[in-house]
Design brief:
- With 376 residues, the protein is of the alpha+beta class.
- The chain is built from nine helices and 24 strands.
- Strand 11 and strand 12 form a beta hairpin.
Length: 376
């Protein structure tokens, strides 16, 4: 199937409905219609457990509807501090009336850094309602299994891990200069998830999580954006690890992919996590944004029926963007009239610098230990 046909399939998939099956380790995730009833919340707090860097000199900030707090030297008397590494991990708390929900979204690169920062930020896994994984890159799930092995017994029994499509489990590769391939990192191991009693919920359609959040599902490619160079993907099960082309409709994959030939990763499984914040609009969390942040925002509008985007948060994967492409994306981004733009992780210093020039009143700097409180 051509890439154009596959894009058409993804655009139509939500309307067609159906169910995607989590390959024998949990129930099928029932697909939602293309338009969902997006829950309304009063408050959202996003905390950066792990990001690429920790700037202790960043100060607090107050803007309409947003309060930003920073973490300096935590637990100094014990000789500990927050650690940063390439990757992203977030803790999210949402409130509606007297009702609260707590989520862990992505898990950074290593379990040791993740565990250290959870302790210093005083985040209690026992209070977490659900886990969310944005996509199948190791710098977002590297800390997951080690964290679960250490803390699973403290957590709710019916714990779910919300992901996108089956290809989140695929083997991912890096391409060497001589065109050979090397393993990017070990694929996400669904066998270990099963052993740890964590139920993967796979859905390429938007889905409501714990009555407060919703995901975009698969992000159609409708803007000027393209997937910038990153990993390659290898379809199939090897030594019990990988993604199963038979787990759902085969025509999701190209003929080349089904033949076992590595292909540039298109991240059809990647999804964003969103909240509808009172009358202010949507808070959209794009953990890496390989599908494009403009495409992601349009998808969030489409599935929720809410036009106003209040805040864009997370990784935008524009670090490798050529200058002319970056300028086009920021020009398109300005058309949304967002209140807050909050680049993390792979967004790139190039994005931060240009955003500071083009939309300084919207830009909010981020880093490990930062806490962002949005109020309706």
């Amino acid at each position: 199937m051509s890439s154009l046909d596959r894009r058409r399939f993804l655009q139509a998939s939500a309307a067609l409905g159906g169910a995607l099956v989590s390959s024998g380790i949990g129930r099928a995730a029932q697909s939602a219609p293309v338009r969902i009833d997006a829950p309304i919340v009063d408050r959202v707090v996003v905390r950066e457990i792990t990001d690429n860097q920790h700037n202790i000199f960043l100060g607090p900030l107050e803007r309409p509807g947003l309060t930003v707090q920073r973490t300096g030297f935590p637990a100094a008397a014990q000789g500990k501090t927050l650690e940063s590494e390439w990757g992203l991990a977030l803790h999210i708390e949402s409130t509606r009336g007297g009702e609260q929900r707590r989520y862990l979204l992505d898990f950074g690169f290593t379990p040791n850094v993740y565990a250290n920062n959870l302790e210093l930020l005083k985040i209690d896994p026992a209070n977490v309602n659900a886990l969310v994984l944005s996509h199948g890159h190791f710098d977002h799930y590297g800390g997951l299994i080690g964290f679960l092995e250490a803390r699973r017994a403290e957590m709710r029994k019916d714990l779910r891990l919300y992901t996108g499509g089956e290809d989140i489990f695929c083997h991912r590769l890096s391409r060497n200069p001589d065109a050979s391939f090397a393993d990017f990192k070990p694929a996400l191991d669904r066998r270990k998830l099963k052993t740890l009693n964590v139920e993967p919920v796979l859905s390429e359609d938007p889905i409501v999580i714990e009555g407060h959040a919703f995901t975009t599902g698969a992000v159609p490619r409708t803007s000027i954006e393209r997937v910038l160079p990153n990993s390659w993907v290898d379809i199939g099960i090897k030594d019990g690890l990988g993604c199963d082309a038979n787990a759902y409709m085969n025509h999701h994959f190209t003929a080349e992919e089904l033949a076992g030939k590595p292909q540039p990763d298109q991240h059809w499984h990647e999804h964003a996590t969103c909240f509808r914040l009172g009358d202010r609009g949507l808070v959209v969390i794009s953990s890496c944004g390989h599908a494009g942040i403009i495409n992601t925002l349009k998808r969030a509008q489409e599935v929720s029926g809410v036009e106003k985007i209040y805040a864009l948060v997370g990784g935008f994967h524009l670090a490798p963007a050529p200058d002319d492409y970056l300028r086009q994306v920021i020009a398109e981004l300005q058309k949304f009239d967002l209140e807050h733009v909050m680049p993390m992780h792979c967004s790139g210093q190039n994005f931060v610098d240009l955003a500071n020039k083009e939309m300084p009143e919207k830009l909010v700097l981020c880093g490990t230990g930062s806490s962002f409180t949005f109020t309706a």
